[in-house]
Amino acid sequence: NTYESIGIVQQKQGCHEDAIHSFERAFAIKKSSLDEGDEDFCVILHFIGTSLFALGRYSESVSYFKDSSEQKRVHYGDNDEDYAMSVIDLAAAYAKVGDEKQSMECYHEAVQSDALPHDSWVLGVCHKCLGEFFINKNMNVASLESFNEAISIFEWNIENTSGSNINYDDIVQCYMHLLDLEEERGGPISEIRGTLCYKLANSYVQVKQHHDAVLMYREAIMIQSQMFGVDHLSVANTLHNLGNCYRDLCDYDKSA
After folding, report:
1. Dmax (CA) of the chain
2. Are 182 and 190 spatial neighbours (Cβ–Cβ below 8 Å)?
3. How far apart are CA 26 and CA 21, in angstroms?
4. Which of 17, 80, 145, 192 would bridge 76 by S-S if both were Cys, CB 3.0 to 4.6 A apart?
5. What local confidence, expressed as pLDDT, does residue 256 receive?
6. How far, CA to CA in Å, does 71 sit from each of 40, 64, 126, 143, 193?
Protein backbone atom coordinates (compact mmCIF):
# COMPACT_ATOMS: atom_id res chain seq x y z
CA ASN A 1 0.00 0.00 0.00
CA THR A 2 0.95 3.67 -0.15
CA TYR A 3 2.31 3.89 3.40
CA GLU A 4 4.60 0.90 2.80
CA SER A 5 5.99 2.50 -0.37
CA ILE A 6 6.52 5.80 1.46
CA GLY A 7 8.28 3.95 4.28
CA ILE A 8 10.64 2.25 1.83
CA VAL A 9 11.61 5.62 0.33
CA GLN A 10 12.09 7.16 3.78
CA GLN A 11 14.24 4.20 4.85
CA LYS A 12 16.46 4.56 1.79
CA GLN A 13 16.85 8.26 2.61
CA GLY A 14 17.90 7.41 6.16
CA CYS A 15 14.74 8.93 7.70
CA HIS A 16 14.18 5.91 9.93
CA GLU A 17 11.83 7.43 12.51
CA ASP A 18 9.52 8.56 9.71
CA ALA A 19 9.90 5.18 8.00
CA ILE A 20 8.84 3.34 11.16
CA HIS A 21 5.70 5.47 11.44
CA SER A 22 4.85 4.77 7.80
CA PHE A 23 5.41 1.03 8.15
CA GLU A 24 3.31 0.95 11.32
CA ARG A 25 0.46 2.67 9.46
CA ALA A 26 0.84 0.16 6.62
CA PHE A 27 0.84 -2.72 9.11
CA ALA A 28 -2.36 -1.45 10.76
CA ILE A 29 -4.13 -1.15 7.41
CA LYS A 30 -3.07 -4.63 6.32
CA LYS A 31 -4.11 -6.07 9.68
CA SER A 32 -7.64 -4.79 9.16
CA SER A 33 -7.92 -6.18 5.64
CA LEU A 34 -5.78 -9.34 5.47
CA ASP A 35 -5.97 -12.70 7.18
CA GLU A 36 -3.84 -13.14 10.28
CA GLY A 37 -0.50 -14.59 9.31
CA ASP A 38 -0.54 -13.23 5.76
CA GLU A 39 2.97 -13.18 4.29
CA ASP A 40 2.81 -9.40 3.79
CA PHE A 41 3.15 -8.97 7.56
CA CYS A 42 6.59 -10.57 7.76
CA VAL A 43 7.90 -8.16 5.11
CA ILE A 44 6.72 -5.07 7.01
CA LEU A 45 7.99 -6.46 10.31
CA HIS A 46 11.41 -6.83 8.74
CA PHE A 47 11.30 -3.27 7.40
CA ILE A 48 10.54 -1.96 10.89
CA GLY A 49 13.33 -4.08 12.38
CA THR A 50 15.78 -2.68 9.83
CA SER A 51 15.00 0.93 10.74
CA LEU A 52 15.12 0.16 14.47
CA PHE A 53 18.54 -1.41 13.98
CA ALA A 54 19.74 1.64 12.05
CA LEU A 55 18.60 3.84 14.95
CA GLY A 56 20.55 1.73 17.45
CA ARG A 57 17.39 0.36 19.07
CA TYR A 58 18.78 -3.15 18.94
CA SER A 59 16.60 -4.85 21.56
CA GLU A 60 13.48 -3.75 19.71
CA SER A 61 14.95 -4.81 16.37
CA VAL A 62 15.57 -8.31 17.77
CA SER A 63 11.86 -8.68 18.45
CA TYR A 64 10.83 -7.56 14.97
CA PHE A 65 13.49 -9.60 13.15
CA LYS A 66 12.55 -12.66 15.20
CA ASP A 67 8.84 -12.33 14.39
CA SER A 68 9.63 -11.70 10.73
CA SER A 69 11.99 -14.66 10.38
CA GLU A 70 9.59 -17.03 12.14
CA GLN A 71 6.79 -16.01 9.80
CA LYS A 72 9.06 -16.29 6.75
CA ARG A 73 9.99 -19.81 7.79
CA VAL A 74 6.29 -20.72 7.81
CA HIS A 75 5.60 -19.12 4.43
CA TYR A 76 8.82 -19.85 2.53
CA GLY A 77 10.57 -22.73 4.33
CA ASP A 78 14.05 -23.13 5.81
CA ASN A 79 15.83 -23.16 2.45
CA ASP A 80 14.58 -19.79 1.22
CA GLU A 81 17.12 -17.01 0.62
CA ASP A 82 14.82 -14.29 1.98
CA TYR A 83 14.36 -16.31 5.16
CA ALA A 84 18.12 -16.78 5.48
CA MET A 85 18.72 -13.04 5.09
CA SER A 86 16.23 -12.33 7.88
CA VAL A 87 18.03 -14.81 10.13
CA ILE A 88 21.33 -13.03 9.39
CA ASP A 89 19.83 -9.67 10.32
CA LEU A 90 18.55 -11.27 13.52
CA ALA A 91 22.07 -12.59 14.19
CA ALA A 92 23.51 -9.09 13.84
CA ALA A 93 20.89 -7.68 16.21
CA TYR A 94 21.59 -10.41 18.79
CA ALA A 95 25.29 -9.54 18.56
CA LYS A 96 24.53 -5.88 19.27
CA VAL A 97 22.64 -6.72 22.46
CA GLY A 98 25.46 -9.02 23.59
CA ASP A 99 23.70 -12.34 23.07
CA GLU A 100 26.63 -14.09 21.41
CA LYS A 101 25.17 -17.58 21.66
CA GLN A 102 21.91 -16.69 19.89
CA SER A 103 23.81 -14.68 17.31
CA MET A 104 26.07 -17.59 16.42
CA GLU A 105 23.14 -20.00 16.29
CA CYS A 106 21.49 -17.71 13.74
CA TYR A 107 24.64 -17.42 11.63
CA HIS A 108 25.06 -21.20 11.76
CA GLU A 109 21.43 -21.70 10.73
CA ALA A 110 21.88 -19.34 7.77
CA VAL A 111 24.98 -21.24 6.62
CA GLN A 112 23.38 -24.65 7.09
CA SER A 113 20.19 -23.63 5.26
CA ASP A 114 22.12 -23.74 1.96
CA ALA A 115 19.76 -20.96 0.84
CA LEU A 116 22.41 -18.36 0.06
CA PRO A 117 24.36 -18.45 -3.22
CA HIS A 118 27.70 -20.13 -2.66
CA ASP A 119 29.54 -17.04 -3.93
CA SER A 120 27.49 -14.62 -1.82
CA TRP A 121 29.53 -12.07 0.14
CA VAL A 122 26.94 -12.32 2.90
CA LEU A 123 27.65 -16.04 3.21
CA GLY A 124 31.33 -15.19 3.60
CA VAL A 125 30.48 -12.76 6.39
CA CYS A 126 28.52 -15.51 8.14
CA HIS A 127 31.58 -17.78 8.04
CA LYS A 128 33.74 -14.90 9.32
CA CYS A 129 31.43 -14.28 12.26
CA LEU A 130 31.40 -17.98 13.09
CA GLY A 131 35.19 -18.02 12.93
CA GLU A 132 35.39 -15.14 15.39
CA PHE A 133 33.01 -16.95 17.74
CA PHE A 134 35.06 -20.16 17.56
CA ILE A 135 38.37 -18.38 18.11
CA ASN A 136 36.99 -16.69 21.24
CA LYS A 137 36.08 -20.16 22.50
CA ASN A 138 39.60 -21.48 21.69
CA MET A 139 38.09 -23.78 19.06
CA ASN A 140 40.98 -23.18 16.69
CA VAL A 141 40.29 -25.97 14.22
CA ALA A 142 36.70 -24.85 13.72
CA SER A 143 37.73 -21.20 13.50
CA LEU A 144 40.40 -21.99 10.89
CA GLU A 145 37.84 -23.83 8.78
CA SER A 146 35.35 -20.94 9.02
CA PHE A 147 37.90 -18.24 8.17
CA ASN A 148 39.17 -20.25 5.20
CA GLU A 149 35.59 -20.65 3.95
CA ALA A 150 35.10 -16.89 4.28
CA ILE A 151 38.35 -16.05 2.50
CA SER A 152 37.62 -18.42 -0.39
CA ILE A 153 34.33 -16.59 -0.99
CA PHE A 154 35.86 -13.12 -0.59
CA GLU A 155 38.78 -13.90 -2.91
CA TRP A 156 36.44 -15.35 -5.53
CA ASN A 157 34.45 -12.12 -5.49
CA ILE A 158 37.60 -10.01 -5.86
CA GLU A 159 38.66 -12.02 -8.90
CA ASN A 160 35.27 -12.42 -10.58
CA THR A 161 33.03 -9.43 -9.77
CA SER A 162 33.06 -5.71 -10.46
CA GLY A 163 33.95 -4.94 -6.86
CA SER A 164 30.88 -2.94 -5.86
CA ASN A 165 29.98 -5.45 -3.13
CA ILE A 166 33.51 -5.92 -1.79
CA ASN A 167 34.26 -4.86 1.77
CA TYR A 168 38.01 -5.12 2.32
CA ASP A 169 37.55 -4.65 6.06
CA ASP A 170 35.99 -8.13 6.15
CA ILE A 171 38.99 -9.54 4.30
CA VAL A 172 41.51 -7.74 6.52
CA GLN A 173 39.90 -9.15 9.66
CA CYS A 174 39.98 -12.69 8.27
CA TYR A 175 43.63 -12.49 7.21
CA MET A 176 44.60 -11.11 10.64
CA HIS A 177 42.90 -14.00 12.41
CA LEU A 178 44.44 -16.52 10.00
CA LEU A 179 47.89 -15.05 10.66
CA ASP A 180 47.43 -15.55 14.40
CA LEU A 181 46.22 -19.11 13.88
CA GLU A 182 49.08 -19.92 11.49
CA GLU A 183 51.71 -18.56 13.88
CA GLU A 184 50.31 -20.76 16.63
CA ARG A 185 50.19 -23.76 14.30
CA GLY A 186 53.26 -23.35 12.10
CA GLY A 187 55.43 -20.77 13.87
CA PRO A 188 56.55 -17.31 12.68
CA ILE A 189 58.23 -18.62 9.51
CA SER A 190 56.13 -20.65 7.10
CA GLU A 191 55.08 -20.49 3.47
CA ILE A 192 51.44 -20.04 4.48
CA ARG A 193 52.32 -17.16 6.80
CA GLY A 194 54.33 -15.47 4.05
CA THR A 195 51.39 -15.71 1.66
CA LEU A 196 49.00 -14.37 4.29
CA CYS A 197 51.28 -11.41 5.05
CA TYR A 198 51.41 -10.59 1.34
CA LYS A 199 47.64 -10.84 0.92
CA LEU A 200 46.96 -8.84 4.06
CA ALA A 201 49.31 -6.11 2.82
CA ASN A 202 47.43 -5.97 -0.51
CA SER A 203 44.16 -5.62 1.39
CA TYR A 204 45.58 -2.88 3.61
CA VAL A 205 46.43 -0.94 0.44
CA GLN A 206 42.80 -1.23 -0.68
CA VAL A 207 41.59 0.39 2.57
CA LYS A 208 44.31 3.07 2.42
CA GLN A 209 46.21 1.71 5.44
CA HIS A 210 49.56 2.04 3.70
CA HIS A 211 51.73 2.10 6.84
CA ASP A 212 50.24 -1.23 7.92
CA ALA A 213 50.73 -2.53 4.39
CA VAL A 214 54.43 -1.63 4.52
CA LEU A 215 54.88 -3.68 7.70
CA MET A 216 53.15 -6.70 6.17
CA TYR A 217 55.06 -6.48 2.87
CA ARG A 218 58.36 -6.30 4.78
CA GLU A 219 57.41 -9.32 6.89
CA ALA A 220 56.37 -11.21 3.74
CA ILE A 221 59.73 -10.41 2.11
CA MET A 222 61.60 -11.62 5.20
CA ILE A 223 59.69 -14.92 5.21
CA GLN A 224 59.87 -15.44 1.42
CA SER A 225 63.60 -14.73 1.39
CA GLN A 226 64.24 -17.27 4.12
CA MET A 227 61.97 -19.87 2.54
CA PHE A 228 62.91 -19.49 -1.14
CA GLY A 229 65.95 -17.21 -1.41
CA VAL A 230 66.22 -13.52 -2.24
CA ASP A 231 66.09 -14.12 -6.01
CA HIS A 232 62.72 -15.89 -5.94
CA LEU A 233 59.87 -14.44 -8.02
CA SER A 234 57.64 -14.09 -4.94
CA VAL A 235 60.22 -11.78 -3.35
CA ALA A 236 60.40 -9.68 -6.52
CA ASN A 237 56.61 -9.36 -6.68
CA THR A 238 56.39 -8.31 -3.04
CA LEU A 239 59.23 -5.81 -3.45
CA HIS A 240 57.37 -4.32 -6.42
CA ASN A 241 54.20 -3.89 -4.37
CA LEU A 242 56.19 -2.47 -1.46
CA GLY A 243 57.70 0.10 -3.82
CA ASN A 244 54.23 1.09 -5.04
CA CYS A 245 53.13 1.42 -1.43
CA TYR A 246 56.02 3.75 -0.60
CA ARG A 247 55.16 5.78 -3.72
CA ASP A 248 51.57 6.14 -2.48
CA LEU A 249 53.04 7.43 0.79
CA CYS A 250 55.13 9.93 -1.22
CA ASP A 251 58.29 8.28 0.11
CA TYR A 252 60.01 8.32 -3.26
CA ASP A 253 63.50 7.49 -2.00
CA LYS A 254 62.29 4.14 -0.63
CA SER A 255 60.01 3.46 -3.60
CA ALA A 256 62.89 3.67 -6.09
Report:
1. 76
2. yes
3. 9
4. 80
5. 67
6. 10, 11, 22, 32, 46
